[in-house]
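Continuing the batch. This is chain 6 of the set; chains 1 through 5 are on the previous pages. Same settings as before, nothing changed between runs. Recording input and output for traceability.
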Amino acid sequence: MHLMVINSFQIIAQLLVLVHGNFIIKPVPQRLEGNEYTQSNSRSESQIEIVNEWKYLDFEYPTFVARQNAIKNGDFVPKNNLPLGIDVHRNRLFITTPRWKDGVPASLGTIPFPIQESSPPIRPYPNWEHHGNPNNPDCLKLISVYRTAIDKCHRIWLIDSGIVNATIGLNQICPPKIVVFDLNTDQLLVRYNFPKTQVKEDSLHSNIVVNIGNTCEDAHAVVSDVWRFGLIVYSLSKNRSWRITNYNFYPNPVASDFSVYGLNFQWLDGVFGMSISYNYQILQRVLYFHPMASFKEFMVSLDLLLNESLWQTNNQENAKYFFSIGDRGHNGQSSTTGISRNGVMFYTQVHKDNIGCWDTAKPYIRANLGMLVDLDDASSKIQFPNDLKVDNEEQQSVWIMSNRLPIFLYSQLEYGEINFRILKADVNKIVKNSICHPIISDNNSTKSAIVLIDEGQCY
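Output for chain 6:
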């Protein structure tokens, strides 16, 4: 970043952004102290708290004998289990454990909160009977749940990929499906298999977000197909779904190269991170999204996605309504995101073992993107932040699942040390001293600067 400061009494601020060799001029207020440009410390005074941590996962079996038998016959292989998704509802934390490898006895479970022990066994949700055996698959049961979404109507929505042993070769033993449970009763509400026409060869459905309209029945789920670059939108009231494609769902080959923990690998993962929020600039709800193999963030009107009739014909007519809002810079790959009620987006930074943030009321430029964990503290607490959620509690928290996934996939975890962590932080406290703190009112000390930032160089 190159900085030129003009007279602090001047009242016009301009941001010069170099894009494709051209300068684009936009007005952006910046804070000056005297003649020096300063940005609030993007680190938070409130440290992220470790909630739970494990060297390896265990499950809560009915009896000790049942557990031993499961280990003996290969139904439970502790080293083959990895926590992926995290979610929160009242006094329970929900953890997904996809069937990456053999020996995963259940792919969704709960642990109590507040915590009773630091490394508790996982209790299959809602019970053992709802989890299928991949060697003798019953597609009415849960096969391989990747992530979840909890709505304000106290329901948990699951995306079950139906795929086992994805680390070896895709084995689609059941159709991908959405499953919904009532969290007050733990009773099954919905089981919806995606139509064959909406599932491509080698599709992998790995993330889900939910939008609630005026009533709990007016609900839509949006599911990402990370390997075949599409979105599936499901309407609860219609019990029907439709597939959406767009070129912005595709991975960027430049961003597909990952180098972490001494490992180098390539992930051509497309549309992945998603979050829904009201955008006050265009006065409607939008879906923010990005591919995993990308440095950019994108946006599209939610009304566009929810209008089934628009997607029954040529999708290209709607392509222009999907657009990039900015980029996070080199090594800015992110998996998942979440937005709090005060409009702050939190997102994982998998290459940096950190959590980023952005106040959605501000332009999506790197000067407005914060990092919330001190660099000296990040690597000791977070190692590959794979999932992130903002809960629905009155006092909201952001929750992170750290799981060392690349080591699990391409090397060997050391089971004598901590491999998996759940972490949390109070939403308001963690952004208090960061650039992501929401704008409440203009500050008289806000003056002007001309800032030259090399943005738009990451695609």
